[in-house]
Every structure is written in C-alpha cells, then in structure tokens.
Write a structure and sequence with these properties.
Strand content: under 5%
Largest sheet: none
Radius of gyration: 18 Å
Length: 64
C-alpha cells in the first residue's frame, strides 16, 4: 500500500536534513575523531537483536 505524501514539506525537510547529516559525517575532520567504544558496543548489540518473521527464518514476500 502506498504511503500518503506529505503536503506540508516535511518530507523534503527530512530528506534535506538527512543529506546534510551524511555530508557532515563524510568530512575528513569528523571521520578522524575516534568512536566511543561503549557506544559502538551498544549499537552492535541493538542491531544484532532479531525481531519479527525473520527470527523464525521466514522469507518476506513482496506482492506485485
């Protein structure tokens, strides 16, 4: 089912903010700063938790 398009410009604002974040993160002076190891461990733990149908090995099927 298609999502409703925002007419108030919030989608465009969100996209512009995302692009600015990527551009800021790609700067060499930002990339040279070491990451907090506790933060990296926390993110890895959070992302490794499986949820939903994939947990049981089910495949996601996209309707055409």
């Amino acid at each position: 089912m298609a999502q409703k398009q925002q007419r108030d410009g919030s989608d465009r604002l969100w996209l512009e903010t995302l692009i600015e974040s990527f551009e800021a993160a790609s700067r060499s002076d930002v990339r040279a700063v070491p990451c907090d190891s506790a933060l990296l461990r926390s993110a890895h733990k959070h992302l490794s938790i499986r949820k939903g149908p994939r947990e049981a090995g089910a495949r996601l099927i996209h309707a055409a």
